[in-house]
Amino acid sequence: MFVGHYAAAFAAKAIEPKTPLWTLAAGCQLIDIGWSSLVMAGVEHASADPSLLGSTLVLYDMPWTHSLPGAAAWSIGAAVLCLLALRQSVWPSVLVGFSVFSHWLLDLLVHRPDLQLYPNGPKVGFALWNYPVPEQALEIGLLAVFGAAWTASRKALGRAAWPAVLFIAFLVVLQIVAMLTPPPAGQIGFQSALTILVIYLLVTALAALADRRSKAA
Q1: Per the structure, how many domains does the chain have?
Q2: Which has the closest alpha carbon to 150: 16, 3, 4?
Q3: pLDDT in tens, 182-203
């Protein structure tokens, strides 16, 4: 799961338009932002195996980000950060927290069994990655449905639809590029993790631009 995670951000934005989209975009990928940072620091580890169907990632060591307790901690931390540091009200902060936890739930659908239920506990994952066509259909489908909901909510508020359409189109292109350029075989190193982190931060910045107020014609 890659751009499909942003469907949670769009859903939350449609529910509560006052929530800044950049906080939701960062939130739905916060677990992977943390993961790429910890891979860079040598705390968590992953590799790539080109022989695998779908995603080539082998995510064998990520207890701090992708375990169930880890995901819960990141979610609560994000909600508290929005509430106290960003001065958001309770409901938008809660939505950001939910968007963070949605990452683990969506990963559960597509990951091979690599998500720990608790420290040193069993690893779970329904392995939809092993079926690339349905997995990609799920990602793009989620993006389309909830992206349309966000776009409709903008129009209902008298805001232009084109920033939303452009942002969603960018995510689709990003998904295609990611499919065509998998990471090289072997250990995921500092440079690859840095590239992944930069992409997440770029998308967050573009989400802020797409969320700028512009009136419909």
Answers
A1: 1
A2: 16
A3: 899 999 999 999 999 999 999 9
